[in-house]
Each structure stands twice: as C-alpha cells, then as structure tokens.
Amino acid sequence: MKIIVINNIKGGTGKSTITANLISSLIDIGHKVCSIDLDSPQHTLFNYVNNRSEDLPLMECETMDYKGDCNEIKNKIDSLREKYDFVFVDTPGGDFESLKDICMMADIIVTPISDSYLDLDVVLQIKNKQSFMPGCYSKIIWDIKKKKSQDSKNLDWVIVPNKFNVRKTKNQESVYKLLSKASPVLSGRISNFIKDRVVFKELFNKGRTVFDLKKSELTVSRVAAKNEIRMLSKYVLGEI
Ligand SMILES: Nc1ncnc2c1ncn2[C@@H]1O[C@H](COP(=O)(O)OP(=O)(O)OP(=O)(O)O)[C@@H](O)[C@H]1O
Ligand SMILES: [Mg+2]
Fold first, then answer.
1. What is the mean pLDDT of residues 158-185?
2. How far apart are the CA of 165 and the centre of ligand 1, in A?
3. Is the CB of 44 under 6 A from ligand 1?
4. Total domain count for the chain?
5. DSSP notation for 200-239
6. What is the β-pairing status of strands 132-134 and 124-126?
7. Which residue range forms the structural domain that includes residue 98?
8. Distance of alpha carbon 102 from alpha carbon 118, whole angstroms
C-alpha cells in the first residue's frame, strides 16, 4: 500500500479538491483506495465524500485529529495496509506540530500550488529572474527527505500547478518555467497543470468528482478536466 499525503503549508491551494479527484480517478481504474481527513474542524474531504449518493462508486474517508497522537494515525494507517492499494491523507495548511511526523509516513507528498508568485513563495523565493532560493516549505520537505533517507526510505515529492488560468497568461508561463527550472534543485517533480475550471467548484454538494459525470453532462472543458486529473494520477504514480 502506498501512502499519499496531500500537503502544502499554504492554505487554499486545492489540496482537498485534488485529493477527492485523484481518489476518484484511482477507483475508476479499479484500485482499492481509502482516505483520512486530518483537517479538523473543517473536514472538507470527509464532507465531500459524505455528500455522495449511494449509486456512486464508494469513496471511503475517516476523520482523525492532526493535533492528536501521531501514533494513533500511524496505527490507523498500518491497519489499512492489507485491504487497500492507496491511502490518501488530506492535511490542513500551516506548519503544525505533527506535520513532519505525518509526512514521515508518506511514500509520496503531493503539493498543489497556484500560479500566483505569492503562493509560490513557500516553495521558491525569487531573488531575481535568474536566481531563486528554496522557500520555507521546501526546507521542511528536504528535512523530511533527509530523515527518511537515513532509514533508507524514499520520499517522492510531486508539486502540482493547480488553478492555472484556462487562458495562457505570461504569469502562469513564467511560474511554470521557474518551477521546471527549479525542479532538480528542489528534488521535487512538477506535474502537468490542473486548470482553474468551474467543474472543480460545483460538484462538492453532491460529492461528485469529474469521474462521476454522466456522458450527457460532458462538455469540452469537463473532458479536459478529466484528462488533466487522469494524467496527474499517472504522473503521481510514476507511470508517466
Ligand atoms: N483546479 C481548480 N479549479 C477551480 N477551483 C479550484 C481548483 N482547485 C481548487 N479550487 C477551489 O479553490 C478553493 C480551495 O480549494 P480546497 O479547499 O480544495 O483547498 P485546500 O488546499 O484543501 O484548502 P485548505 O487549506 O483550507 O484545506 C475551493 O473554493 C475550491 O473549489
Ligand atoms: Mg483542504
């Protein structure tokens, strides 16, 4: 079983949205997936899953408190190993006390980031067009990577450019270029981007994801959204 932790120290970058859609894409191709929502008290992912009607493919989610005992979370994850292929752990934003311990359990950390330089700052601090420094969040990830490598364990970090403008803008191009250039330095992989699409905003109340859309509901933009998530899930799993 692979443990995928969705995290960014910055809030509101699309962690829960990406988590719900990634889970759905993996269930769609037959994987056994469950999830833990650590983001109390808002529990966005848990509420998302609970909004689903019974005729939709089952998505499983439990809530646990990130302020609680990390061993409880670890034991919970261990108890899921036999039954599932993947467990997704959705986390709150911010640098909370148990963040490092939770990330230490991960095989993969997925970090959505928007096309705003303001959001980028936690990953990359831009000095001028030619040079950049790792942001405070990148340093946290490096620290975790280092600790894991001391136990001969690997940590794969995937940065997901999310909420990118549907129209190509100079700003998003420069953010993407910069991320790609910094990727080897950051030792993080940069995925395909997920665009800012209405479909990612409107399905929550019914707990649906782009993979639950009926044929009659598909538009060009929604098909594109589905392809973006499909591609992202392959990228996260290292298949492309
Ligand atoms: N690709 C996207 N296109 C359009 N809207 C998006 C996209 N991704 C996320 N959003 C919207 O951005 C907002 C924040 O998303 P979400 O709650 O998933 O972020 P989060 O990182 O989990 O936030 P928090 O830090 O509060 O947990 C929501 O309104 C969501 O609908
Ligand atoms: Mg969230």
1. 95
2. 14
3. yes
4. 1
5. HHHSGGGT--GGG--GGG--HHHHHHHHHHHHHHHHHTT-
6. antiparallel
7. 2-236
8. 26
